[in-house]
Amino acid sequence: MAVDSLRAHLIEELTDLLDAENQLTRALPKMAAASSTTALKQAFQQHLKETRGHIIRLNSALRLLDEEPSRKTCEAMEGLLAEGEEMMKKASEGALRDAVMITAAQKVEHYEMATYGTVRTYAEVLGESGVARLLQATLREEKAADSKLTAIAQRSVNKRAAEEWRTRKSADGNESGVVERSAEWMGRLVGSASRRFAGTTKRAAESIGVAQDRAARRAAGRKRTTKRGRSARKHRR
Ligand SMILES: [Fe+2]
Predict the structure, then answer these.
(1) What spacing in Å lies between the alpha carbon of 4 and ligand 1's midpoint?
(2) Which of 43, 87, 206, 222 is most enclosed, with most CB atoms within 10 A?
(3) Chain-centroid distance, C-alpha 115
(4) 39 in helix, strand or coil?
(5) Alpha-carbon gap, residue 26 to 4, rounded angstroms
(6) Fold exhibited by the domain 6-178
(7) What dihedral do alpha carbons 90, 96, 100, 103 form, nearest 10°?
(8) Is the distance from CB of 157 to CB of 98 less than 8 angstroms?
(9) Residue 129: Cβ within 10 Å count
């Protein structure tokens, strides 16, 4: 459909939103299942119900405009959800993954809020007050869902995710501390062993020297005795 008027643009945006909401109904159950915080799980489940209502409202709005819903892929929502899923896979289970899902969900909510606010205003200026009312009702729910996510993040998830990080950091610190202390102890052990070995070697060398001196002195003594014996025998002849 060619976009040659504000009305045509409004219809195109509503069709885009319809696909965005349908994509979201497939993503929200996965997000609820992956949540470790009860309040977050409930928020995703509640927003899934609301999202089904948003689809009903969008179909009603298109009917009021005498338009049949056509197929269109919302590439922005596709990208936001793909990015969110990728981030979820990389995060470890627990408060960190909850925080990551809140990040992704709030990006989605803000995209929807921007679009619903815009199309509501187009409907108003085009004199489509019934359509504007439907879109305003959805916009209110998107804003409430976003505020709820902010509250959950600020009241519990962010603090728990930061706590998880601090606990892991101090556990890693203790582990490397053990390695350092072991290396220090090994160093001291090797040092004292080598000092003991050097002492033993020195003492052994000294005793060898003393023994060699004694042997040399004994040999010299024997030599002198033999010489004196030979000269005595010579004089007796
Ligand atoms: Fe929605």
Answers:
(1) 27
(2) 43
(3) 31
(4) helix
(5) 33
(6) Ferritin (1.20.1260)
(7) -160
(8) yes
(9) 12
Helix, strand and coil content of the chain, in percent to the nearest 5, comes to: 90, 0, 10
Between CA 217 and CA 222 the distance in angstroms is 9
Residues with Cβ–ion distance below 5 A, ligand 1 = 51, 54, 112
Distance between Cα 92 and ligand 1 center (Å): 28
CA atoms in the 13 A half-sphere facing the CB of 232? 6
Whole-number Å distance, alpha carbon 20 to ligand 1 midpoint, is 8
CA of 140 relative to ligand 1 center, distance in Å: 10
Q: How far is the CA of 125 from the centre of ligand 1 (A)?
A: 23
Tens of each residue's pLDDT in the chain, 237 residues: 678 999 999 999 999 999 999 999 999 999 999 999 999 999 999 999 999 999 999 999 999 999 988 889 999 999 999 999 999 999 999 999 999 999 999 999 999 999 999 999 999 999 999 999 999 999 999 999 999 999 999 999 999 999 988 998 888 877 665 555 555 655 565 566 656 655 655 665 566 566 667 766 777 776 665 566 565 555 554
One-letter amino acid for residue 76 of the chain:
A
Q: Would you kindly state where each structural domain of the chain is located, as residue ranges?
A: 6-178
